[in-house]
Amino acid sequence: MIIDRIQNRNVYPMGKAWQTAFEFLFSLDENTEEKKYYLQGEDMFAMVTSYETRSPEIAVLESHRKYLDIQTVIKGREGMAWFPASELAVKQPYDEQKDVEFYHCPDLRIAHANIFPGIFAVFFPHDAHMPSLMIGDVPECVKKVVVKVNVKLLNAQFLAV
User: Fold this and answer.
1) Does 2-155 carry CATH code 2.40.160.20?
2) 92 contact partners, CB below 8 Å, separation of at least 6
3) How confident is the model at residue 161, as a pLDDT?
4) pLDDT for the residue 110
5) What is the CA 119 to chain-centroid distance, rounded?
6) Residue 20 contacts by C-beta under 8 Å, 6 or more apart in sequence?
């Protein structure tokens, strides 16, 4: 997992796909159309969506094997929790078609971060994550982007578990 300011993206030498993803992120604003954007076919794409944040009891805990997620919000703010996937009980086995595995949420969060415009989070295949969490007790409408990058496009040294 990486959590950092978008302007620090070059600290992570993960290659051309990484640069392409962040060039796309820099092109977004609150008026960006909500849809799927293909940055490099099915190997790298982004989804811009809006929704209300939710409580941990409603949010889902997931991981991916084929893609890593680069997530940020364009408008609003949301919490994200992180867990080591290898230590979790599987709730729904890996679906290769959707590239997702769901987990039962443990009582204790290992790490939690609040994400807002200018901050990004990266979740690797070994990172289980629970995004779209409320900050505080009141749901908030967020506009968010998730860039999905096929792990084969990145420098391998960052993918070791």
Assistant:
1) no
2) 101, 102
3) 45
4) 75
5) 12
6) 39, 40, 44
